[in-house]
Amino acid sequence: MVALSIVDQGPVSAQTSPAQTIGHSVELARLAEEIGYTRFWVAEHHGVRNMAFAAPEILIGHIADRTSRLRVGSGGIMLPNHTPLHVAEQFRTLEALHPGRIDLGLGRSTGTGDDPTRDALLRFPDALDRFGEHLRQLLGVGGRVPLDPDDPYRELIASPAGVPLPSVFLLGSSVSSAELAARAGLSYAFLCVNQDPEVAARALRRYRALFAPAEEGDRPLALLATRIWVGENDEHGEALASPERLAVLDYLTGDPRPLEPVERALARRLTDAQLAARDKLDFRGDVVGGVDRVASRLAELVEASGADEVMAISNIHSPEDRRDSFRRLAVAAGLCPVPVGH
Fold first, then answer.
1. Angle at the Cα of 236 from the Cα atoms of 232 and 242, rounded to 5 degrees
2. Could you give the residue ranges of the DSSP H alpha helices within the chain?
3. Taking a C-beta distance cutoff of 8 angstroms, is the pair 168, 139 a contact?
């Protein structure tokens, strides 16, 4: 049985407004805790019409208040949008309020795809290039690593002092990001979306080979995040995936939309531009089907990558269908013998 977690990107659909999506996230987190999922992370995106979450640091506290055992975290905080000191203070505060239950997942992008939004978000004009420096500063003011004598953060301590920085994960989708996480002694989460899962396997193997503990007792922790849809059978699983896959094509061809109902997504005829965009995408990392097919595919991915944990991203039009998909996924992963709540 592999440990199982969730990354919630806050999917907005024709059925759910952005505000309603937050309430559905709380319901999903409670279900995840009941079933036995390990973590529940929320994403940071800006200017993306079918994703509602832009302030994970607020949502984390809200969800942690409404659960009791589940680890809650960011998947992730986009560090180029924030100052290292502020992030360290936010997450030390969350750790003080919910000891031992908070994860700080850090990404090196801005969480948006358009230039005006990206430029409005960047805390420093060159923040994308200075990710490694800002990561070390965050760890430094959080008490995890020493800083160089000439670093402007050298004398700073993130408040509240005396509270440990929560578990820190570097998020990435390349071998180079795995190497950075390993050398920094951090946990690592690989996003295997629209690429060959063999890249994930190489990255996670490289991460373990290079891992250098930052503190005594640190151990490598490798997570594999991918898109997963689990239906009543294989055909139903593929149908559940269709609105998200169509939304990606809409986004790539300049016509972003909320997730459409399954029936409408299946019936929509793709434009030539969408067909060309689809031909460039790699769906081999997706896990789609009924319980048996998903169980087999999960076992293959874990065996190939050596992942300690699988994180599921399941953007589905209907919140009810999404919860049912996560119930079936728990069965496929061996968390429970039958779907909980049925």
1. 140
2. 18-35, 56-65, 84-97, 115-121, 131-141, 175-184, 197-210, 234-252, 262-267, 272-280, 291-305, 319-332
3. yes
pLDDT tens-digit map of 196-237: 999 999 999 999 999 999 878 889 999 999 999 999 999 999
Dist CA 235 CA 165 (whole Å): 44
Residues 10-27 have pLDDT tens digits of: 999 988 888 999 999 999
| Cα radius of gyration (the chain) | 20
Tokens 């203070």 -> residue: 89
In 3D space, the residue among 224, 249, 243 whose CA is nearest the CA of residue 302 turns out to be 224
Indicate the pTM of the whole model.
0.95
- DSSP class of residue 11? B
Query: What is the rounded average pLDDT of the residues 49-64?
Result: 95
Domains and CATH numbers, the chain: 3-231+285-332 (3.20.20.30)
The per-residue pLDDT of the chain, averaged, comes to: 94
Which amino acid is present at 158? Answer: A
